[in-house]
Specification:
- There is one protein chain.
- The protein is mainly β.
- The longest helix is centred in the middle third of the chain and has 4 residues, at 140-143.
- The chain has one helix and 27 strands.
Amino acid sequence: MGAADQPPVFEQTVYRFNTLEDCATSTVVGTVSAESNGSILYRFVSDGGIQDDFDVNGSGDIVSMRPLDRETREMYELIVRAETRASLPLVAHARVLIHVGDVNDNAPRFETDRYAAVIAEGSAPGMQVIQVVAEDADLGLNGQFYYMISNESVSGVFVCDSSTGSISLTGELDRESVSEYRLSVVAVDRGVPRLSSTTQVIVMVSDENDNAPVFRQSTYSGAVNEDALPGTIILVVVAIDADSAPSLMYHIAGGDVLGQFGVRRSGEIYVNKLLDREETAHYQLTVLATDGAHTAVTTVNINILDANDNSPVCEQVSLD
């Protein structure tokens, strides 16, 4: 080391630079400068691997070495060394702070790509069905977003709050017409360019007992021999109910005061007691079908057929 050698001196003890996370590799972020009476070399001496994202050349230019991601690291604090080229170099150090600015490189992201909800068909408009939630890792307008339902087929039935993602009922539901809705909900950020993502919301409409059963026929007719044994099936009545999985019960409500007939859950009308055509040759039954809240009525005509169950009787005996 010569007597004239002087240690380098940085112009600043702390350098502050800004760059955007989408800057190209080899972009000059900023320049540091140290003074000495000889030529100077610059290099980073920070611990760890964060300095690998940047390098400094012989002119003191700090350049980016690989793509940056603000969402991973927003601030770098590096130590740069200036040293003379002497055999025993003289050195100086300065801090370099690099702030990575945000760009709109993240779309809003939903918690899940599919939501499911169940709502009763009798629900009143205004009822909340479900809330979808998205997040955006960007800052400022880049990270602000709003929600909207993108498929117009459900307009007038559901609405989505643009700020909260809460989906509410706006119309009336009829499970017998539509039992399931599939909503496409989009989250759109306010950055440039605008980025968005979509999730699907499946809304299943649960059944309400709002339909009465209906018999397939208003009148049924059948016949049975008067000597038919109890349990003999005469005919089957059938009622249908538009509600999902209805549990129908059948009852004989009139026309059979002695309980000569019975009806099963299947709608089978059968002989319950021994019959006698000579006593009653025709029955007209009133049969009900009920789902527990509503009823339907039909008429069942049953003719009793004669059996040879009576011996002939002479009205008069003549004696010669």
